[in-house]
Design a protein that fits this description.
Elements lengths: L5 E3 L2 E4 L52 H22 L20 H4 L18 E7 L2 E6 L4 H11 L4 E2 L2 E2 L6 E2 L7 E5 L5 H14 L9 E6 L5 E4 L15 E8 L5 E2 L2 E3 L23 E3 L6 E5 L13 E3 L2 E3 L2 E9 L6
Antiparallel strand pairs: 1-2, 3-4, 4-15, 5-8, 6-7, 8-9, 9-18, 10-16, 11-15, 11-18, 12-17, 13-14, 13-16
């Protein structure tokens, strides 16, 4: 049974009976189909390409903040910073009811008046409330109230009593120690890091001054009886001999180990400021009224700098110990060097 020839749209009819007839088929060039991997892809039905629609961004674009918003944000951040500083007590807002004289530099009336309202040493020999007060910028001087506990003060005194000797001074020319009428107290030294209590005190000094423990000399213990004093002097050296170990003395911390009934003030005769405005002016001795004075109080510590921030010597750091008029005065001094002080 044979099949009828099927008409071909491309020309000659196809014959199923003769395979060789396929080779005789002629196709127009436009009818040749190309493979997608060898040429251009076939066009979609209808012969027209569809235009791709533009894609919308997934996230909308943000507009840059306006200058008003930036200014408002800056004001809010500044206000928040001020509130935080006020809460931490870094600074306070001055009252407008004070007189013009209270705003003068180094006026101590508003600072020292608060001392009367503060509590002293705590119970059972513990440290009372601690706080630091600026008393002068020339020289730079600060009082750390209740720096030592009552037990620590008594411990240092008992430790030093068996070793007290006549105090000496340093000769400016030779750099050696010698007896002098300008210093009539008794004294001795306690080695740096001698025991745990002393190490704790020295660590506290380093935390307060930001000067490493290794830059400090040993603790000098001093005892002043009635009539004994220390004439005004500088703690920094004026010779090369005493600066070979540790360099220059840059700061001094003087710790008061006892109260003094009358006299015994630490006085800075060349300091700058209106010192007659302090609340205890009438309680000072004649010597104490010769400049900026700090009354001895058990547990308090006086820090003052013998060098300015630029490294030069501060002549306003001239200081002395007023004569004791009534009672006894015990104190402990630590000098702090520019470099490590080897012991």
């Amino acid at each position: 049974m044979g099949y009828a020839a099927t008409p071909s749209p491309y020309g000659a009819p196809l014959s199923s009976s003769s395979p060789s007839s396929l080779s005789s088929i002629s196709l127009p060039p436009s009818a040749i189909l190309r493979s997608p991997d060898r040429g251009a892809p076939l066009p979609p039905r209808g012969g027209r390409r569809r235009m791709a629609k533009p894609r919308q961004p997934r996230f909308p674009q943000r507009r840059p903040p306006s200058s008003r918003r930036l200014l408002l944000a800056a004001i809010l951040m500044f206000g928040l910073a001020v509130l935080i500083l006020l809460a931490l007590g870094v600074f306070s807002i001055p009252s407008g009811g004070g007189s013009s004289s209270s705003s003068e530099a180094n006026d101590l009336s508003s600072i020292l008046r608060r001392n009367v309202k503060r509590s002293g040493l705590g119970r059972d020999g513990e440290r009372g409330e601690q706080w630091v007060e600026l008393i002068s910028w020339e020289p730079r001087a600060f009082v750390y109230h209740n720096f030592l506990s009552e037990d620590e003060c008594k411990y240092l005194i008992e430790l030093a009593k068996p070793h007290m000797k006549k105090s000496t001074v340093v000769d400016r020319v030779t750099g050696e120690t010698k007896d002098s009428r300008v210093r009539t107290s008794l004294g001795t030294f306690l080695a740096r890091g001698r025991d745990k209590i002393i190490r704790d005190i020295e660590k506290r000094i380093a935390d307060f001054t930001f000067i490493p423990i290794e830059h400090g000399e040993g603790l000098q213990m001093l005892h002043y009886e009635v009539g004994q004093k220390y004439e005004p002097h500088y703690d920094y050296f004026q010779d090369e001999y005493n600066t070979k170990n540790g360099g220059q003395r840059m700061a001094t911390i003087l710790m008061y180990l006892s109260d003094v009934e009358e006299g015994g003030e630490t006085v800075f005769p060349t300091a700058k400021g209106n010192f007659s405005a302090v609340p205890w002016w009438n309680e000072l001795s004649d010597c104490g009224k010769e400049g900026l004075s700090v009354k001895p109080k058990m547990g308090d510590a006086l820090l003052f700098w013998s060098m300015k921030p630029d490294g030069s010597l501060d002549k306003s750091s001239l200081h002395g110990g007023c004569p004791v008029i009534k009672g006894n005065k015990w104190s402990s001094t630590k000098w702090l060097r520019v470099h490590e002080y080897k012991v």
